## 1
Amino acid sequence: MTIRSKLAFVLGVSMLLFIALIQVFGRRVMKEQVRVQEESTVRTDIKRVITLFEEEENGFVAFTESESFRADAAEILDPARNRSLDSHKVASVFLINQCDIIACADPSGRVLQARMFDRKSGGERAVPTDFQARLDMIKPLRETLSPAEDFSVILAFEKIPHLVVVHPSLKHPPNAFGDGLLIVARKIDGTFMEQLGRIANLPLRRLPTMKIGLPDGVKAALDAGTNRFTTAVRAVSEDTISGLVQVRDPGGAPALVMSFDAPRLLNALFNRSWTLFAGVFVGAVLLMMILSAVVIDKMVVARLSRLAAVVKTIDSDTDRPGPVPVEGGDEISGLAVSINGMLESLHDYNEERRDLIQRLESDSLEDPLTGLYNRRGFLTIGREYLNLSARNKTRMHLLFLDMDNLKQINDTFGHATGDEAIVRAAEIIKSVFRSSDVKSRLGGDEFAVFPIASSIQGLKSSLSRFHEKISEFNRSGICPFTLSFSSGVAGYDPENPSTIEDLLARADKRMYEEKRRKTENDDRA
């Protein structure tokens, strides 16, 4: 495949990928922005619905706390009068004040008398069977309020939500209810939702409190928290978005769920605009790709072809390749200059690369806190020492050191002082052992040195110098802590070779034997 064919293929694939990315991700991002803006508008509508609901609630409280209403209520509930709710005067009390239940209760909340009027049929109905049980839910709320304070709640009687207002008689003396309570309830039905919807200019409707058919995410949003009002927004389809408001009863259970649908005007406008934009965009990209291919072919491909032909000639002249000819002063001519420079500086480049590799290897093998080898470095260099020892038939010894009191230092002075103790120990190890020895911090408070000596005498001498340095440091008092080490030694015999890991394990085991002896001696002391 020629470079021109590859260029055409790459440009074509790039164009398709670019268009696909814009179509998928660009459209998704912009559509999400549209959805967020629509959701913000719906949430504003939701706030308006809640405000209007509370205003309607407050208005109902005001209607039912008037002296005239209380007098009418007393007459309706008076058993001695036994007024029929079918009479025009009695019915007008329910109709004018838009209430459905009027009741009175003693101070404890026990209902003494209750009557219910059906405003649609114009006749009396039986009070809901769960009327008393639901009213009992407001007892904890009443206990938090003043005895003379009106309040309103939403309660569901026989699964139908009602706006319930409680008027303590202490607030309106003298009265016909003694020191008890006047309770007025208004059914939140379709008529209520229509009236509230007209005020809000929204198609409000009531949903079942079980929220059947709603997605789990919407249910979770409505059931979250403990606020009286909880809200959610749901994109129903490409054309419709819904706002939902849930109102809780005093027990925290859902008593009313309101919903309204709004057309997704922004989404529809976006879809139409995107179709037009996508067509124009694809055409523009296609034209740009064609023009780019023509220009690149003329300004780049042809010249690169000529440069490639010259480079092939240079490759064939292995004895003394000549310089690549330089044409003009643009990037391609710069490429020719770079090729010439590359041929002249290849050796220097290789040297720099080797130095870089060595630095990288050093970084990966060194412990950053102490400057000693880390575990990886110790194992890597240690294996090379073992190979050298095996070839030269020389014995070596590995020393394993463990700080006895690092945990005590950390607990007493803090981890920063613990790090200082590790650094001080590393400095002593560096000063005592030879530069040719592999000195390592294996991790935490564990150190290892290998090979510290090729004989027992050399080993004893090295250990003696190490313990003297530790004692000098502790006597100096330059730090608030003292250092103490337990050690273990493992020897390497070239006649009976072992791995660096085996040596470490043996030395570690002997170190723990010494640490145990120290502990036993301290206990006896």
## 2
Amino acid sequence: MAALPAAQRAACSPGAEGGRVDAGRQLVQRRLPSGAQQRRRDVPFVKWWQRGPRKAGEVKPVKLIPTLLHWTDSCKEVLDLVLRYEGELDSREMTVAFQRMGALFLTDLGATPDRVVAPENAKEHCARLFSEAQAQLGTLDTQGLATAVWMCARFHYLPPAEERAAWERALWERRFDVTLIEVSNIIFSLGVLHWLPTEMPALNDELLERALQQAHKLTPWMVCNIMWGCARLQPDGWAPSADCLVRLVEASLPQLDSFSPESFCAMLFSLACLRMRPDDAALTAVLDAFQWQVPKSNNRQLVTVVWSLGALQITPLITESLWDDIERQLLQQADEFNFSSAPFFLFGSARLQLNPSEPLLRLLLAKTIEFLPDLRTGDVTVVLWALCRMGHKAGEGVVTHQFLQPLVERFMQHNAERPATLRQLSTLLWATSQLKAELPPATLAALIADADARATEQRRAMSTTDATMLLNAFETMESPEGLAFLKRHIMGRWGARHRSRLFDDEEGEEGSEGSASDSDGEGPEETLKGGGISKGGAEEGASASAGEGLLDDELELRPVL
């Protein structure tokens, strides 16, 4: 038998640690002279589409998709490649370009602690690619159209109105071809961007109906993405009907065993934001399934669920074992808290009238002080309001004066940077008065002046809830300046019925507190027929409005696409 070549003998010989080297994994390269090897190392690698302008007669490569997927390392490189063969990419190649750019941006965003991307992955590249795709919208299939808006959502880039209108028209023409995955991605992405279709106003309803026609095929993450997108679009003026929500919830019930903690978090949060409460049987099934996922849930998911349950006000459905499991898990997650964890939990706990245990309350208050520089006016308002609803008083137990004073100071500091709303100001004054926390005269005067300014700026009359809370606060504080401000804004703007109701000495403190926590008094609750869902699960009282600032991007909710 002929002797093996030296390279093969080396490949089959024992390794450095005594094991044998797999010859099939050896890469044999042609040996170059030492000078040529040095020159190769000195010349930087340049990708072929970056070596210069496109030459006359240069043909678009047949295999451009592998190049987009495996050779591009930044959003700028994706854009350069698309622009090099402008107008020549087919639907599949454009779809891959959208997907690759969105994926590269997310990778860069997640790799930096400060969440600041490099210039080569900036938003301007997404804007240019979406703009370049306008000429090809007529040739893009539904996957390409869905991926284009998904890319924009990754960058949080809202295209100009004319480009949005062109995309809406293109999708409307192909609405009957959209798949379930594409429907969930589109509605989710539109929600991220607060992109409410105006060129084709019925687009969302058509997409949702398309999904509900195949409800039995919806997976948990599809249902949650659709509901979350609907919740994000609700402040912009669109929300699904009660019947659609019933069908979405019903589609998810047989699959609750496969729900992840994030899925439960997204579903309950969406229902709370939409102010739609499913019937007790459906909610009981959801909560029973969620209890098995509590040990797997992180801090953000748990506090978001508690906030959502409080907004829905479903105390009778929450078992003692579920609440104990949530508390136990939170106590083990002290290192996972962020600035919104305590406000979220305290809001939900107060609405549910399920006070946290003393160890958990101490942890929540400690984390509030730890993240004090990050708190906003809405966060401070929620914390003080919740402590008041739980029956605490300043200087009693864990709620000390040393805890309350820096909170009020932080409110004033952030109020100077971003003025608080009238609801936040009235709730802060009401909560501090009920907590028996004394405000310095200068601070009280500044708050009254700010409330006067906000009340003057708003075009409508002061709401019953704001007026009642302010009346109760100023009477408790014995502030003639506050009462004078309140009467000045009420006299002449409300009828005699409202004035006599507010300034009737017989109403008392208990009545004031009730209206501060129950209903805004500006319209009856609306009951929606269909599946036992009622609108008004999260009333527009001081408690709900004090948490308004927590309904949006601050939640950092990220359903998985």
## 3
Amino acid sequence: MRIFNPGPEYSQIISYLLTGKSAREIGRIMGYKSGGTVSKKIKRLINHGYLINHTGPDNRFYSITLKGYSIIGNKREDNSPTQSGKVEALTENSDKFYRLHALQIKYWLKTPLPAENIHIISFKDHPTHLRNLRNHSDLIVEFKDFNVTVSTRAIKFTNLEVRMPYKEVNDPQILLTKAMALIEPEVEHIESLLSKHIPGLKLQRLANNVLDAVVTRGEIAIENDELAINVGKIQKDTGEKLRIYDPDDGKISEIVDFSKGPAEFESVHPKKLIENLEIYKQFLDDLNSGKFYDRINKIVEVQEKTMQIQEKQEEIQKNAFSQFDERINEHLNLVNNLATQFFHALDELKNYMMR
């Protein structure tokens, strides 16, 4: 197998990508006859772990790995997280982000390992950080302090964190899939390291060469969410905390949390992360589009019509009872008249018999 050693032109390509230029623009600047040449070089950088490709609904962007930083000689230490692992808070003008944190992902092994190979490995201050090439302050994936548990049938990664631009993920159903795709290159790197010390360790791959994995735990936050920020201000003023409980099992389902800086909406139910996120996202979309207020107006209209129907029913019942009372009185009068006539007839018969 040929070893790939990227030369200065690859460093230039990454540097231009950092400024948001397209492959066609880079090709023109560097004097290539077509943008296809640059696209091929970008593909090689992706295949060898220097870049990660992301395709959004409107465009495509790339994340640069630590390996990618090494060939441009710019680690951007000024943008690294603090020692506590916290990322600087976004400003009110920043775009919204999904932040998947406290993630636990289980990767299945191709073949079971002997029991003596069970390990728990803690990584502290791990140097891998993936950043958005368009904005270095946007930390995309953070492998800082996390644990790797090697069991007989799987490897479990615990305490991972991923951030993705809100506008790049229209459907929350694919959020976890995209997050796992971002994490996968680093997982494969750690697989390579572990396999040197644990014979036979190899992760299971599906037909499309994607790692066979499942998210077993985690929380999903929406950073810089306007509604959550306003609720957070109310929470600070009143001391009350918003907690929404699941109606089925009573567990906490959603919260508004400001422990990381600006308030965030968080979906925290262990079994309904995506379901609750979809409900909240739909609520936000309806709120911003005005559909929410249309629904409120429709509810008010239905309530008003219901009250009108109830009033009409009460009126009909009242009239019915009134008409029923009139008929009863007529029958009573008729009975009284008949009784009077009967008794008169009896008196006349009695008088006749006594003559």
## 4
Amino acid sequence: MIYLKEVRFRDICKKISQNEVHTMKSVIRPNKSNRNLIFAVMLFLGIFGGILFISPHDAFYSVQKNKDTLVKDISLNSPHSSESTNVWITLNPINNTHITRGDNITLTGHVLWWDAPTLKNLTNYPIYPVVNNVSYNGLSGNANLSVITDADGNFVINYTIQHNVDFTTNLTIYANLTENPANNIYVGPDTFLSDPIEIDVLASSNISFTTNIVDPVLTNDQYSVLITLIDDNNVPIAAPNVSLYRNSNSSDILQTNITLAANGQAQITVTQEASLVELGVFYPGLNPTVQDGYEFFQISPSNFSLVIPRISSVHAELSVSNAKNSSETGVYTGDDIEIFTKLWINDDTQSPLNGREIEFLLTIGAQSASLGPFTTDQNGEVSQTINLASNGLTNNGTLVVAISVRNGGSTVVPSSAIQNTNEINIAVFDEPDYGGIAVNITIQPPAQNWVKILIPILIGAGLIGGLVLFQRFRMEQSHRRSIKLRKVDLEKFAIMNLLYKVDRRREAIAYSYKIFADLINEKYGLVREKNQTLREFAILCVTKYGLDPLRTYPYIALVENVTYGAYDLTPEEYERAMKVFARIFQEITGTVLNFALEITSETELLEGVTLKIGGD
């Protein structure tokens, strides 16, 4: 147990007024007649002082314990009384002495008061903070941050570090109160039982960047990034070690060791990558130090990220027609074809893919040609007239036209990645033989007029023979198509059309798969097993019987989306779906199918159904 050693008789006597002391001196005389009286008074006071000396007091014990470490060198901001100190302030330590400008400090503590003859808690009294010798008590134009002590003499002061505080120097903070002699409250150097708290003020950093991107970017596009680094007082920070990283992953570095100039900025050129969705910038901070297991920085680290507006998907409409007669469903090997396409981005038809390079990919049997690049106009459209023979396409058969998007000299969106319509077909026929007959003409004397008569006859016969051969060729073509279609059940087409007429477009598309399965069964004898999925059956058709995957898989994907999807089709989407079905129909039967199903109110269910075969 610690006892009070410095409460002296002299200190207690100071609590007696000067007039009373003077009266005692004038009445009490040290003569023999009153010596006993003086002795008795002295004995009483000695006993009283001894009781105070040996009485334990928990709160006062804490005061005495700290008095050896009292702060003697603090300049008080309140008037100092000639009376002795009788209030004592104890500050509690704070957890974090490294604070960024703008952060809040919570200063807590306790105040004791010697109100003779009792040591008690100083309650309901204002306490204010002193920061770098500036008292925040509402005087001299300073803010009033005073708080009132509670019933136990405790106080809690909240102080926010100002943004203009110099982070290169420490900040000193403690608590104080105003002396009030009228209420027996005296402040002196011994009032402060705790050292002022030293705060290491740090600067927070704010890093950001902007780009010059106007339209969504595509792979291989280049754009500039302007990086800016400032502290929390908007002062630029020059730094040699800023990094750019990919997709919210600070360890996936795109560019490192970027040096910021004196204005806190740097401009970097970035080449868009296919997988780059988000771009981030990171500043690692300045002068890291470790204290009490925590890492602190003179200027704190910061990072910033931004989603890059990019082209995530490309959609297209594509059409191919006979350049001479667009109503024709096929062309001859020497003819011109008209290719038209319209492209848009991110599944938004109001966002055209304008000013971009595209390429047409033409394939017919073993022959192929890449044409372009062509640049889309402001509506995302390209229209080109192309001669097949002049581009090395001389075979007959089915011409497949596909498109791809190019950028920076390479293909960035292949045909397989373009949605809606990425390819289309048109039939190519050999040029017909008109049966022309070569005739050697010998000029005879004028008397032989019969030659003049014979030559026109021979020419006419040749023309007639050519027309006959051509018509026979067309009849044979039509006969072959009719054989291939002989087992196609026209009732199924009628049912599919009826479903469309009653706005059951999804079921109509699904029903087209039944026609597909029946065609496969008729041609290859292959029946879909009950445990086979639509895709598994299609893969078997491709791998075993050589169906074109570029026609088969898009059709199966369409049927799957419609069958298992929760959305309905618009008439335009149904029309595009029928074009996809026509391509797979042509793949199986070898016939260009352009069917029109009409059921009128005047006919029965299956009447008025017509099936038009291209080329007939």
